[in-house]
Amino acid sequence: MNAVIVGAYWGDEGKGKIVDLLASQADWVVRFNGGDNAGHTIVANGKQVILHILPAGVIQGKNVAIGPDMFFNPKTFFADYDAVVKAGFRIIGKILIDERAHVIMPYHIALDAGGEASGKLGTTKRGIGPVAKDKASRTEDITVHDLVSGDFKEKIKAVVAAKVNELLQHKVVERAADLNRYAEEIYSEYSRYAAKLRSYVGSCTYTFNEELKNGKSLLLEGAQATLLDVVHGTRPYVTSSNCTAGGAAANLGIDLRKFKIIAIVKAYPTRVGEGHFPTELGNYEETKKERKGEMLTATEKKKAIDGDLKLLGKWIRQDGGEFGATTGRPRRTGFPDFVALRYSGMINSVDEWVITKIDVLSGKPFRAAVAYEKDGRKTTRFPFKLEGWKPVYGKKEYFWRQMSESEETAAVKKGYDALPEGMKEYIRDLVTAIGIPVSMVSIGPQREKTVIKDVLKRTREYLK
Ligand code: IMP
After folding, report:
1. Residue 27 pLDDT
2. What range defines the domain where residue 256 resides?
3. 249: which of 216, 269, 403, 422 is 20 to 30 A away, CA to CA?
4. What is the model's pLDDT at position 128?
5. The whole model's pTM is what?
């Protein structure tokens, strides 16, 4: 099976686990967008590994690749590599890094951290915006091809010289006279990476078109998610890459008709960084101060159940471990949003949803947005500018109590019918609101906590 995996909301949908699960059937696992702003958490053999740039399939010894439209930070690549080895996994598959990928340089990171976007958009400070800007400039960019070629030193000197004003303005270098030394320092660090990377560099486009012709299967691992897409997302509060399924075809130069499109929907949306979030529970300024492990007391839980939405948002965040894998920032949490999901389903041409982290909602009453409203106007479309749009919630309140360990095991074994009634009601409403069936329901972080049996069959029945 060839499949593209994308996130349905604003990222952090738990794609790492699902990619890891599906990877066993794939010959290659390929990242096609973004850079080390992503953080994919995988729990396997009782160990947790967080990967930022290496595709999750590496854990299973699969061939992995970094696509041509990616932003590549060599330092993170080696850190990921070491993390995998340190966790006891063996890297036995091939690693392919596309020569067209753009290299994140130290000044991209410095410009991102010190730039306007880091505060205004709440970026991950990994240099993504600045490297994307250089890519678009076509004159100040450095590709993986440049990195491993003989004239890398001249290239880096020329680029640093061309950027003199920007680097001085943002105090990346203090004086113009320091430029040469700065370029030399970068060269010294990056030429060491280049020496170690050279054997991995090649063309994804040729490799994958040939592999597909030879009947090999590809799993394309999206990073970030649909609503962070640079074109279709909630601009300007987006990342700088194409995060949609169509982006995978454009970025890799492959035929998407050969792929199944799977979107990962976390049972509740979350968002990190700035930007509008119609179904947000609580407010971001307070969320920012929260720390991981600040669990709710029994009284607070009761209050949340009785309608304190701020506490409900905190409860979901703490139970769901909703703290950034890359930055550690607390994630904003919200009620499910069928307006956003309908949009996501449409622009990705989704074949199947995979619902993740549904267990986190156990014991918590919640509703789902079915439309938005502004100045007495109602819409079921996802507006380009979300300012002022308020969610209109469906009448139904969803609730089911926490499943015991043995109930979870039974659900995995017996399949969809064994899930709690309230959970199935929510899934049914999600499926019918959006018109796309579900193929898997994840009820815990471990591989084995995934319900697959009869899920597609039953949710297709909802659509008849
Ligand atoms: P950047 O990609 O670092 O430029 O950040 C732009 C926006 O995308 C910020 O709001 C980030 O928090 C968000 N973002 C980037 N990568 C991820 C991710 O992997 N998960 C969730 N949000 C992300």
Report:
1. 96
2. 3-98+200-264
3. 269
4. 97
5. 0.95
Q: Is residue 369 situated within a structural domain? A: no
- How far apart are the C-alpha atoms of 141 and 163, rounded to whole Å? 11
> Is 170 known to be catalytic?
no
Last residue of a domain, one of 173, 197, 221: 197
| Same domain assignment for residues 187 and 124 | yes
Ligand 1, from 13, 52, 70, 123: best to mutate by most atoms within 8 Å of Cβ? 123
Bridge partners, 30 (sequence order): 65, 220
Check residue 105 and give left, alpha or beta (phi > 0: left; psi -120 to 50: alpha).
beta
pLDDT of amino acid 327: 78
- With respect to residue 396, please indicate whether it lies within any of the assigned structural domains: no
pLDDT computed for residue 46 by the predictor: 84
**Catalytic: which of 27, 40, 98, 102?**
40
Alpha helices, DSSP H only, in 143-275? 144-148, 152-162, 164-169, 179-197, 204-213, 245-252
Task: For residue 240, report the distance from its CA to the centre of ligand 1, in Å.
Answer: 9
CA of 339: how far to CAs of 127, 209, 219, 304, in Å?
32, 36, 28, 25
pLDDT in tens, 9-28: 999 999 888 998 999 999 99
* Residue at 30 is within a domain: yes
Check whether residue 108 and residue 178 sit in a common domain: yes
Give which of 396, 402, 342 is closest to 367, Cα–Cα.
396
Is residue 8 domain-shared with residue 91, that is, in the same domain?
yes
- Identify whether the C-beta of residue 339 lies closer than 8 Å to the C-beta of residue 382: yes
Q: Is 134 marked active-site? A: no
Using 70 as the pLDDT threshold, list the residues of the chain that sit under it: none
Question: Tens of pLDDT along 204-213?
Answer: 999 999 999 9
